[in-house]
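Let's do one together. I've listed all components of the complex below, 512 residues spread over two lines.
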Amino acid sequence: MKKIEIITRTFKLDEVKTALAGIGVKGMTVNEVKGFGRQGGHKEVYRGAEYQVDFVPKIKIDVVVEDDFAAQVVEAARDAARTGQVGDGKIFVSPVDEVVRIRTGETGDEAI
Amino acid sequence: MNPTDNAFILICAALVMFMTPGLALFYGGLVRSKNVLSTIMHSFMMLGLVSVLWAVIGYTLSFGSDIGGLIGGLDFAFLQGVGMDNAGSPADNLPHLTFMIFQCMFAVITPALISGAFAERMKFGGFMVFSTLWLILVYAPMCHWVWGGGWMGEMGALDFAGGAVVHMSSGAAALCCAILMGKRKGHGSTAFIPHNLPMTILGAGILWFGWFGFNAGSALAADGVAANAFVTTHMATAAAALSWIVAEWFHGGKATTLGAASGAVAGLVAITPAAGFVTPMWAIVIGLCAGVICYGGIMLKNKFGYDDALDVVGIHGVGGTFGALATGVFATVGADGLINGNAHQLWVQFVSVVATWAFCFVMTFVIFKVVDATVGMKANDEEQDKGMDIAEHSETGYQW
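Okay, and this is what the predicted structure of the assembly comes out as:
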C-alpha cells in the first residue's frame, strides 16, 4: 500500500477531489497547511513596512491506495492540480505498512 | 441656557463616546490575533476608569477655578456644584453637566490613544495604574492650560478641539512609553502582520463619524462655527485619505486599505486644532499635507528603532504637531494666522507645541518609571509568546 500526499494550491482542492473520485479513490483526508518551496513566500506591505511572508497557505490531500493503483492516482492528481505556474506544489509517495479499519478490524488492502 | 445647544452638545458627547470603541476596533484589527482582546480592553476600559476619575477629580483639576495658570482648584471635586443649570458652567449656554460630560469623552479617548504604542506587551494592571496617574498628572493640567483658563489659552494658543490636549499629548506619551518599554519579543525578526484589517477599517470609519461630535461639538453651540468645523473636519479627512494612498502608491507601489484608513485618521488629527479657525478650502490643504507628512511620520520608528506598535507617534504626535502649526498658518475664521499677516500666531503655536511635547514627555517618563518599579509595565517573553489575551485575561478572541 502507498500513501500519496498531494500538497497544492487551495483552489485546486475541488478539481483534485473530483479527479481522484473519478478513477475510484474511495476516501481522502484534507488539511489546510502552510509552507514554501523554491518560489519562497510573498511580500506584504503595512504602512510602508515590508514583511516577507515565508509560509504560503496550501492544502494537503492524503490518500492511501493499493500498490498497483498508486501510479494512476499520482497521474490524475498531477494533471488536476497543474496550472504550470510556480507554486503548483508537490506529490510525495511513501510505503504504508499497515491499515486497520477501526469499525470492523479489517486490515491491509481490505481496510482501504 | 439654550436648549438647542444643549441637545446638540449631548448628541456630540455621545458621538465622541463612540470613538473609543471605534478606536478599540481600529487598534484591535492591527495586532496579532492572540492580542486582540487585550488591545480592545485598553480602549474599552478607559470608558470605565477615566469616566469615574473624571467625575471624582479630573474635571475639577481641568476646569476648577484657576490656580496660577497651571491647574484647576477642587471646587468641582466629586461633581459638587455641577448641576442641571448653567451655574458655574464654562459655557453659559449649556447645563454644567452637559459641558462636563462632553469633556469627559475627550478625557476617555486620550489615554486610550497612547495604548497603541505599547500594544502586544503591556501588563493590564500596569496599564490601569499608568492611565490613572497620566490622566491626573498630564491630561488634567494640559486640559486646564488650554481650555480651563490656564497659561496656554491665556497666551492665545489656538486649539479648537484638542490638537495639543488630546493628540500631541498622547503622541508625546506614546514616544516616551515606546522608548522606555522596549520592543516586542521578536521585533525585527518576526512579521507583526495585522490580523483583521476589515475590523481596522470599520474602526476608522467609526472614528471619522464620531469625530464630527469631537470637532463640531467643540463649538459648544449649534451654530455656524459648528457647521464650519463639521465641514473642515470632513474635507481634511477626505483629502488626507487621498494623499496618503497617493504617497504610498508612489513610494510602495500599491494603494492599501490600511493606508486609506491611516490617512483618514491623520487628517482627522491634523484638522482637530484648526477645525473652527480655517475655511473648508484651507482644510483640504491641511488634509493633503497631513496625509503625506504622517506617512513620513510612520517611517520615523524604522529610522530611530523604537517599537511604537500601532504608530501613535507617527499619526497623533506628528499629525497633532503639524495641525497645531498649520492652525497658526491658515487661521482666518475668528482668528488670524500667518496668511492673514499675523506671524505672531505661528510663534504662539510653536511655543505651545514645544511646551506640550516637553511637559507630556517628561511627566510620562516619571509616571512610567514609578509604575514600572511598583506594579510593572511590560509582560515577559513567555507571556508575550502566549499572547496577552491568555496571559492577562484568560480569554481568546477567536475559537477556531
